[in-house]
Amino acid sequence: MNKVTKVNIWDLDGTVINSFHRVQPCLCPSTGNLDLQKYLREACKHELVMGDTLLPLVETMKRCFDSADTVNVIVTARTMAKSDYVFLRQNGLRGRNGQNVRVMSRDTLAKYFPHDEVRAIYSSSDANYKRRYFELLQAQYPGAQFTVYDDHKGVLRVASEMGFNVLDAQMVNDILSVGMSLIGEAIIDEHMAEDLDIDYLKAKLDFAWQCMTDEERAEYTATTSPAKVLAA
Ligand SMILES: [Mg+2]
Fold first, then answer.
1. Shortest CA distance to 107 belongs to which of 36, 57, 208?
2. 85 domain residue, yes or no
3. Which end of the chain is more exposed for a tag (fewer CB within 10 A), N or C?
């Protein structure tokens, strides 16, 4: 077995899956945390889950599956049910036979943490909940390079504090969407080297960035630039 040198941690909602139509009403307006009760009650119906679509960053995620020295882990605020797994499988994000991605969700906490801690972790904020999984993975793969792909600012802050690379998925997806709508994804791909994961994404992002108008770029430079996002 190859030694693991990279660990990629993937969020689902707002990072690789566009579930805005059903999840957004369940997010706390001030913190962005998922209201789990409301989510389970209203957002998890099979036909709603199947109505989700993919975000541009999913292409980078799929490329990462091919790398033998990389472990990919989905760490999601969701409690995962059958429909969630069906969607992942139908979209090539989780195969049946040991595909290179694991899933850590609120309903799998009991597999990884002591019984008396599970309830507290389950009901903690998204950032504190994910921190526990991050710490677990950090202990499991000492010395590996960690990259967290997430659209939750609090989660990104926690990951950054832990010394992980962080990638603001909301911003990257926005920029990639603009770049693609301007020139078409196929044309972008012609300009890209076949490198995996972060190098591939950086090149693609730089290219999309160059294709944007000054006005479009101005929306992002107020906060940070893509180079800064990826250099973190
Ligand atoms: Mg998210």
1. 36
2. yes
3. N
- Considering the domain boundaries, does residue 183 fall inside one? no
pLDDT at 139: 97
Q: Residues whose CB is under 5 A from ligand 1 (ion)?
A: 11, 13-14, 151
CA 29–ligand 1 middle distance (angstroms):
14
The CA 123 to ligand 1 mean position distance, Å, reads 17
Q: Is residue 122 situated within a structural domain?
A: yes
Q: How many whole angstroms separate alpha carbon 19 and alpha carbon 51? A: 8
User: The domain spanning residue 95 has which CATH number?
Assistant: 3.40.50.1000
Q: Where are the beta strands (DSSP E) in 27-86?
A: 53-54, 70-75
Report the number of distinct structural domains present in the chain.
1
Residues of the domain holding 47: 6-168
Q: Which is more confidently placed, 216 or 145?
A: 145
User: Rounded to two decimals, what is the model's pTM?
Assistant: 0.79
Q: How far is the CA of 1 from the centre of ligand 1 (A)?
A: 32
Which of the four pLDDT bands, split at 50, 70 and 90, describes residue 87? very high
